[in-house]
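R.M. (postdoc): so does anyone remember the format we settled on? I'll just put the C-alpha cells first.
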C-alpha cells in the first residue's frame, strides 16, 4: 500500500539550503543557518512506496 504526502519546498538565499516541510506549514527561518531570507519554491506530492522496518 502506498501513501501520498504533500510537501512544500523552500530555499535559503544565504546558504542555498533547500528543505521540505509538510504542505500547509510555513517556514520563517532556514533550519541550517537561521536566516529569514527564504523563498517558497512550490509544492509537490511524494508517493511513499516503502517504509523501513522501524516505521
Amino acid at each position: 500500500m502506498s501513501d501520498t504526502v504533500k510537501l512544500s519546498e523552500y530555499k535559503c538565499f544565504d546558504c542555498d539550503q533547500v528543505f521540505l516541510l509538510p504542505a500547509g506549514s510555513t517556514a520563517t527561518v532556514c533550519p541550517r543557518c537561521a536566516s529569514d531570507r527564504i523563498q517558497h519554491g512550490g509544492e509537490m506530492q511524494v508517493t511513499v512506496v516503502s517504509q523501513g522496518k522501524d516505521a
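R.M.: ...and that's the designed sequence above, right after the C-alpha cells. Also worth knowing: The chain has one domain: 2-49. The mean pLDDT is 90.
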